[in-house]
Amino acid sequence: MNIQLPVPHDLRETIARVGLRALDRERSRELARSEVSDLVVAGIGRLRLPRSVGGFGLDWVASTEILLELAAQDSNIPQVLRGHFAVQEDLLWRADAESDAAPEARDLVRRWLARIAAGELVGNAWTEPGKGGFHQSGTVVSESTDGHVVNGVKYYTTGAIFADWLDVTARDAAGHELAVLMRRDQPGVEIDDDWDGFGQRTTGSGTARLSDAVVEEAELRGLNDRFPYQTALYQHFLLIVLAGVSEAAARDAAALLHERSRTFSHANTRTPRTDPQLLQAVGEIDAVAALARAQVLATAASLDAAFAARSSTEDAQIEAANAVELATGRAQVALHRPVLEALTRIFDVLGASGVSQSRSLDRHWRNARTVTSHNPWVYKARIAGDHRVNGTAPVRLWSVGEPDAAQTPSAEVPPGAPEKVTPGA
């Protein structure tokens, strides 16, 4: 059982400092390498770890509160961390089953918990460009004289360029889908910062090329053996980003209006900060930011319920995982329109001066539009409707890629096809 602890003051101070140069990094497309490093040292990567192994022992609601603070300072960084938190969640899920596991498995979990407690960071390398990844990874793991090696190309490798370890999906010679953890700093791994999206520009979501990248046999694991709400957890981090962007826009709109002195001859008051129409516009942004925050904290509570089910029956685990999958999908559907609309209202508040490139206020909309484009909401709306009307369970593990002639997209994974999840494509 996790015990809630106050987050150390130095972590909160580090989060606050992240925002000091966020606008400069946005303008120059500079990766927040030093900021991520400082956050890891301050403990951002071990929020969920138990106190007994050097963590803060926070549940998902409390962890989300901290991550929302971070997202409001720089929306890129929580997205950088989501692969790390997914691996951490799987370790915590497995840790409770240690008594039933083989000694080697128990030792592996303990080693990984110690690595995370020591500040090692994991990045994501799941999605594949082009045809790769539709129900089966194009990336392969095979035996060699060095043990096991991985070959393939990944894209949307969010956080990988900052990481010590890569979390890679691959298939073995028998066609089994695996989750593989490998060191990033080895000759067989090349990561390019070639992500060219117009938003979330500094997440490091570029290309990873794996050429005989070495992986230890102990780090090969069946993808379906991981905790059962992976997709929902990845989506939760995108919701955190969305809520953080909303809060940042509300903050900027309020601050800029408060200091503004120029007004129009046909305005309502002499000072813009007392003009009721402008205050209404800021209030609309503020209300949507509050809505997004409340929605994200609600999905965090669903994650806590799913994690609590780990000691229950398999049916109870799947039921809880389905519930959080639906919760994150509904939140995505519910928030994308009001958030995107609210983020354009900042220009109604500030007029033409608000579009100055020096302020880069358009970054809020671009960042929000980018995360709402990941894992398209239109499919989530259909899934929610199918569940409401027909009681159909949501798809929890899914893939993205270009299907060949034998593969047909559907709401269910085709019989016999390996299930896999590809977050953030």
| Helical fraction | 40-55%
Look at the structure and give the mean pLDDT: 90
Element-level helix/strand string: HHHHHHEEEEEEEEHHHHH
**Could you give the count of β-strands?**
8
CATH homologous superfamily name of the largest domain? Butyryl-CoA Dehydrogenase, subunit A, domain 3
What is the radius of gyration computed over CA atoms, rounded to a whole number of angstroms? 22 Å
Provide the β-strand percentage band.
5-15%
Structure commentary:
The protein is α+β, with helices and mostly antiparallel strands and 425 residues long. The protein has 3 domains: 9-120, Butyryl-Coa Dehydrogenase, subunit A, domain 1 (Orthogonal Bundle), CATH 1.10.540.10; 125-225, Butyryl-CoA Dehydrogenase, subunit A, domain 2, CATH 2.40.110; 230-390, Butyryl-CoA Dehydrogenase, subunit A, domain 3. It has helices at residues 9-18, 22-28, 33-42, 60-73, 76-95, 103-117, 230-259, 276-308, 314-350, 362-373, 377-390; strands at 122-125, 140-144, 147-154, 165-171, 177-183, 189-192, 207-215, 220-222. Strands 1-4-5-8 form a 4-stranded mixed beta sheet, covered by helices on one side. Strand 4 (165-171) and strand 5 (177-183) form a beta hairpin. Helix 1 runs antiparallel to helix 3 (33-42), helix 5 (76-95) packs antiparallel against helix 6 (103-117) and helix 5 packs antiparallel against helix 7 (230-259). It is globular. Mean pLDDT is 90; it is low at 413-425.
